[in-house]
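Kindly inspect this today.
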Amino acid sequence: WHLAVHQKAPASLALQHHHLSSCGRSVGFLEPTEKLLKDHTTPLATINSQNSAQITSGSDFQENPTKSDVLSVKKNQPAVEKVLNGAGQGGSAGAAAELQGQRGRAVAGCRQQQQQWAAGVIHTRLRSWHHLARLRTSLREARHRHLENFYSRAKHLAANWNRIRTSRRTIIHIPSLGYSQGIREHIPDLAVQQNLQMGRLCDILDANVDVIYICPLALSEELLQYYHKLLGLQAAVRSGKPEDMADLQDRFRILTPEAINSFPEHHMCLATVLKHSPRTLQRLQELLQGRDAYMVGGVPHLDDLAVADQLQVPLLGPEPAVAQLYSTKSGSKRMFASAGVPTPPGEWGIHSREQLLRALSQLILDHPEVRRWLFKVDDERGGNGTAFCDVTSHLECHPWIQRERQGHGPEGWSESQARELALVKISQELPGLLAQHVQAVNEKRFPTWEKFLQTFLTQGGVIEAFPFSASVTNLTVDVLIEPTGEVTLLSSGDQLHAEGPLRSSGTTIPQRSVDPEVLKALCWKIGEACKSKGVLGYFSVDFVAFTHPQTGEQQVWATDLDLCYSDQLALTQLLLYVTDGTLDCGSSLLQGPLGAKESRSQGVQHEGTAPPAPSSPRWAVASSQLRHCSLSGTSYSLLLHSCKARGVGFDLQEKQGTVFVLYEDQKRHSLGMVTIGEDLQGVLLTFARNLFIIHQEISAPNMQGETNFKMAIRDIEAILGVTAENKLRLEEEQPWEADALKE
């Protein structure tokens, strides 16, 4: 058209789309056509797309077609030839006139093609819209059905719980992290993070329980053999004789859904992957046939309900919408308020910059004793969405406010104009102060305050006071709301902080920071509040305990609520399995059967007077978050052999020592470790010694890379008030090089 190909004409677009399989040859054929016609100033020529396709698809297609080739694909070839080959002006003029007549007809044809094309596009889009609408309706109906069946089966589980919990049953463990898509996209190694709870396998400690563990990774034969041997220790632990190890592989199954690698860019949670794995679902149905069974998930997701419905089993957990509502930072504050338990001063449900500045200004004025304020994003976990700022240290008007407060006295200050002026001064200073001094826990993700604030305001969040004390302890308590409504405490531990004070990396079990009766009362209140909101199953509560600097009394605040099965609980199941012990959270007492040495000593001590005590106190240090980049350079079998040679292992006769939790054997950047002993100081030192030995065994001289081993040691030093490294005194060991680890 006008000596150029009309690229946007419907016919031209159709040609490009229809003959895409010819690698662009049909489209490329237009270029020599355009050149030929321009050379002879031909007004209009129409391409025969069928002839063009035949020529370009042939094996004799040339990149530079001849004049005859070009002419052969013209619908109006005779008229064009007259112009190209016309003898004289008259012939050319006549041909041109004929072409002009064809041009009018072609324009009309083009308009008709455009109308037909537009009608086709509209029809196609309408069909797609109707199809999408049907899909949405079908999905909505399926989810409604899943939810109805979830509640129906929950009622049946509650009615039969007392029978089921004491009878032969199968527990399907699916450690899925059903966070929102935006959160899952920011979880590094999502599959590994979903596999930190291998300790769930230890539910087979109950002789009536069989376990099916859905694994988000394809485990190697070496790893499978490791867990077969570990779980086979049960009889040997009880007898203290290694030869009594048994093969319990008929009591548990580790199944990996076939779709784990089908959606590599979608960051799907494990429940969704399982939903799209028909072979694994069929295998599960075969294993569950005719058996009492129920499902225990992780972070609840709608696809947990879909899987439970497919398997026709109840889910021991809350409805996903309920869990998502109360697992957010703001949601947990609402739950704690409903329970009537103490919480840090703060504000929740913040979604705008103005609201944040107004709330923080008021909090600073109302709580002058608080130096550090925390900012927590609603949906983030593990400290990733937390930032902090020591506001009063940088607030220029703070000394003036202190003087005015003292001058007016407590009663006069609350009504004074100076207080209103102080509020104005604070709110004016805060924007610049926060931009300069706020520090995010995850600085890689949030290098600036503005970057953090964007996520904070998008998701919503809370402002929370950090305890105003030099001695602060964080602790975690695991709780179960049984189907019958009974609230049971399952585990408790004081947190370790290998990566800073606002990120937990493990716990010492049981907790010893708070009076067990006080803790039990707080957890019971929270459990009752959760139950009233429709929460069922496993959840964990984080507390912070500190001594008030003025009163000298202990304060305990509830800080976080996670409505899911925790890493701490999985590690607790493991330590109870390998010690054949019991944990009473009501008294914060972990007990295990006497070891060989203890039995002999107590037998001598009580000879002729009383029988030996059946058990003795135990302590454990457990972590699922130990990272060291050099682990990838050593096979697990070699690592375990080296550790055994250096005295790192589990003593069956004494029922104490160290057990590892291995997650995967591709990257091998992390592992879990549980160390059990007779006293807390000793077990902390042993845990630190283990880290020291592992680092030496796997690291080359002057190794540079990521690890949190060194910071874990430092945290243990702080707990004990001693230099743990000096206590190790290991033979033939070099001093820990300060620059050997990149922290």
In short: Residues 2-75 form one domain. The mean pLDDT is 85.
